[in-house]
Amino acid sequence: QVQLVESGGGSVQTGGSLRLSCAYTSSTYCMGWFRQAPGKEREAVAHIDRFGRHTYTDSVKGRFTISKDNAKKTLALQMRSLKPEDTAMYYCAGMTDGCTQTPRYWGQGTQVTVSS
Q1: Which of 68, 58, 2 is CA-nearest to residue 32?
Q2: What spatial distance separates the first Cα and last Cα of the chain, rounded to whole Å?
Q3: For the chain: N or C, fewer Cβ within 10 A?
């Protein structure tokens, strides 16, 4: 069983930055960040696989950076130039079979609020 614990959420103004962290007990083939805004479906934000290849949803490209430190067992999401539309609950997730698969493991989430 893989456990994921997020931290680092908070409230910032438009244009600000936040860094989310996810401490995990064991790595999976692919790990990523998802987000869910009120009234919207959960969406994938960024993934990183076991080979270090990463992908981003179009709306965050150039602003967010995903990284993984296997020694520290930490997944991070550096978010810059934040916009109000980035406001959501952010979840860390682990996929065992590939980055396009439904995550098998989820963290409890951390709230990010961006005010205009």
Answers
A1: 68
A2: 40
A3: N
